[in-house]
Amino acid sequence: MVTAILLAGGSGSRFGSDKPKQFLEINGCTVLEHSIRIFQQCERIDSIVIVTRQDFVDEVRQIAASYPKVQHVRPGGKERYHSTLSALEVCTNPDDILLIHDAVRPFVSQEIINRCIQALHEYDACGVAVPCTDTTVRVDADDCIVETLPRHTLRNMQTPQGFRQHILRTAFDLGLQDPGFQPTDDCGVVRNYLPDVPIKIVAGESSNIKITYPEDLQRFVS
């Protein structure tokens, strides 16, 4: 079974709106609904779980009522990883494929989704990424360059990130025992706590942007 987990718990503080950006309405529906539609339309997706802020659970349930693949709407928590943990409470089959996606990436393509699912027939974990196009440097405490990084080895991560359920669950169980556990993404949890598990990178697309600033919404305007 393949389950898409849409993380819609962000506050959108950088966006400068009174309402989280995933709930802004563009062209007649919310950003979240645009993302739900993409996974609803994918033939290889069996179910959808949405994790959102506690105070928006009822609103999300109303939005999701029109999409039969949405089986659960869950409250998240303070940090991003709390949302993943909330989804894992209802995604319990060890052999299932889980695709974890930022709900504010509403331009993800069917091709990306299918590439992730295909990769998980061979690997236990995968991430979507695009090559870095800018020179990337490492700096010191005074913001002086100390190293220019080899660009051909660098990638900018996107979502979805995909996993066999038992791999992600095991990685989180180990991470939660670490007093310094502060993950920024799910691939990082697997990389840090199950270092022997290869994480396959599949090709992303430049259009698969994360809506962060108001100008990003111009892509929606018809």
Write the layout of secondary structure elements.
Layout: E1 2-8, E2 25-26, E3 29-30, H1 31-41, E4 47-52, H2 57-64, E5 70-75, H3 80-88, E6 97-102, H4 110-119, E7 125-131, E8 137-139, E9 145-148, E10 155-164, H5 165-175, H6 186-193, E11 200-203
Parallel strand pairs: 1-4, 1-6, 4-5, 7-11
Antiparallel strand pairs: 2-3, 6-10, 7-10, 8-9
Helix pairs in contact: 5-6
How would you describe the overall organization of this protein?
The protein is built from six helices and eleven strands. The protein has 222 residues and is α/β, with parallel strands linked by helices. Strand 8 (137-139) and strand 9 form a beta hairpin. Helix 5 (165-175) crosses helix 6 (186-193). The longest helix has 11 residues, at 31-41. The termini are far apart. The relative contact order is 0.18. The mean pLDDT is 92.
Oligomer: single chain
- Secondary structure tally, helices: 6
SS-derived structural category = alpha/beta
Q: Strand portion, in percent? A: 25-35%
- Our measurement of the CA-to-CA distance between the termini, rounded to an integer number of angstroms, reads 35 Å
Low-confidence stretches: none
Q: Output the strand order for the largest sheet.
A: 5-4-1-6-10-7-11
* DSSP, total strands: 11
Could you describe the largest sheet, including whether it forms a barrel?
Answer: 7 strands, mixed
Integer-rounded radius of gyration? 18 Å
Helicity range: 25-40%
pLDDT averaged over residues: 92
The global form is: globular
Order of helices and strands: EEEHEHEHEHEEEEHHE
